[in-house]
Specification:
- This protein is of the alpha/beta class and 356 residues long.
- The protein has 2 domains: 130 residues, 2-Layer Sandwich (Nucleotidyltransferase, domain 5), CATH 3.30.420.40; 175 residues, 2-Layer Sandwich (Nucleotidyltransferase, domain 5), CATH 3.30.420.40.
- The protein is 43% helix and 18% strand.
- A 5-stranded mixed beta sheet has the order 3-2-1-4-5, with helices on both faces. Strands 8-7-6-9-10 form a 5-stranded mixed beta sheet, sandwiched between helices.
- Helix 2 runs parallel beside helix 3, helix 4 packs across helix 11 and helix 6 crosses helix 8.
- The longest helix has 29 residues.
- It is globular.
- The C terminus is likely disordered.
- Bound molecules: 5'-O-[(R)-(carboxyoxy)(hydroxy)phosphoryl]adenosine and zinc ion.
């Protein structure tokens, strides 16, 4: 189908300015220019700073992606760009950049949903066929999607408050550890006792596959404060034990809810994960076990394609292009753009983090 399409992808919905060139399923180049240092002093992504940085870096990212791929603009079949959801200033920068390129070259323009980019990545990396169950777990998102086609997504459930990555980041902060919290908490957890603190497994008592992680973070805060009251502070071992107990709780919740999602959508041949949290060894192992019990193949794309990148946007663009999508100069940048337009809005909105 899209085996020999050459597509430029552009991504700028959060704090990574990215451009990539794909030919079929081959990634000819994938450039990701992060902005971590620009936002570090503010403890989170500042939308105005992000938008300005995207506007400054996009041309360079595109130039570098084309040069690394050895592809000229005129050799492209299409230009795909994230048109939402995300921080509107950044999304607008990307959409304007793509429109400029499309207008100058006469190449087709394809607007892509950022979440569809994540959700379709296992097709790029592993050639996965439809349908499959996708668990998207990042710093800003947590949801189960049945993926039936490039534009056919059914949302089975997701977090009603924090995303797991956000919880990892907040727990790290509570314990005086560095950001992003995920990898640091995981490293601490390796030396810790996951059974020492009996932390809650929120919403396991309720049917369905909605999740909640904000209470878990509060429970960690209470455990820390109880130790401080009792002993005047926490030791390195206390910290490692808290991290291990917290990680075990997140892994348990994700595993059990995945089991339920697979039961709700029988016949899924594969369980795929994406998002930064999928890098966590304990969580990955728990999900792999659940998939094996359900006789589903477990697919976890390489980390650099699990986190924000433009190769996934180029791929989703290629799928949409093959399906006939062409966007015009009226392509809009959308701050909100749920993948499953039919599912009822969640309690609390479900997305509090900056990233998707
Ligand atoms: O997908 P991602 O790079 O960005 C978006 O959120 O889109 O995910 C980043 C999140 C951060 O919250 C980070 O703490 C978390 O993924 N993360 C991890 C690990 N590595 C990154 N969480 C748990 N364990 C990890 N090893
Ligand atoms: Zn993302």
């Amino acid at each position: 189908m899209n085996d020999d399409l050459t597509v430029l992808g552009i991504e700028s919905s959060c704090d990574d300015t990215a451009a990539a060139v794909l030919r079929g399923r081959e990634i000819l180049s994938s450039v990701v220019m992060g902005q971590a240092e620009l936002h570090a002093a503010f403890g989170g992504v500042v939308p105005e700073i992000a938008a300005r940085a995207h506007a400054e870096k996009l041309d360079h990212a595109v130039e570098a992606a084309l040069a690394q791929a050895g592809v000229e603009l005129r050799a492209l079949d299409a230009i795909a760009v994230t048109a939402g959801p995300g921080l509107i200033g950044g999304v607008l920068s990307g959409v304007m950049c793509a429109k400029g390129l499309a207008a100058a070259t006469g190449k087709p323009l394809i607007g892509v949903n950022h979440l569809a980019g994540h959700a379709l990545t296992p097709r790029l990396t592993d050639g996965l066929g439809f349908p499959y169950l996708m668990l998207l777990v990042s710093g800003g998102h947590c949801q189960f999607l049945v993926v039936r086609g490039p534009e056919e997504f059914t949302r089975l459930g997701g977090t009603i408050d924090d995303a797991p990555g956000e919880a990892f980041d907040k727990v790290a902060k509570l314990l005086g550890l560095a950001q992003p919290g995920g990898p640091v908490v995981e490293a601490e957890a390796r030396r810790g006792d996951p059974k020492r603190f009996a932390l809650p497994r929120p919403l396991l008592d309720r049917p369905g596959c909605d999740m909640s992680f904000s209470g878990l973070k509060t429970a960690v805060l209470r455990a820390r404060d109880a130790l401080v009251t009792e002993k005047g502070g926490i030791t390195a071992q206390d910290r490692a034990d808290i991290c291990a107990s917290f990680q075990a709780a997140v892994a348990d919740v994700l595993a059990e809810k995945t089991r339920r999602a697979l039961a709700l959508a029988p016949g899924m041949g594969a369980l795929a994960v994406a998002g930064g949290v999928a890098a966590n060894g304990t969580i990955r192992a728990a999900l792999e076990t659940v998939a094996a019990q359900d006789r589903a193949t477990f697919v976890a794309p390489p980390l650099k394609l699990c986190t924000d990148n433009a190769a996934m946007i180029a791929w989703a663009g290629a799928e949409l292009f093959a399906g006939g999508q062409r966007d015009g100069m009226d392509l809009a940048a959308r701050p909100r753009w749920p993948l499953d337009q039919t599912s009822t809005p969640m309690l609390g909105g479900g997305k509090r983090g900056a990233k998707a």
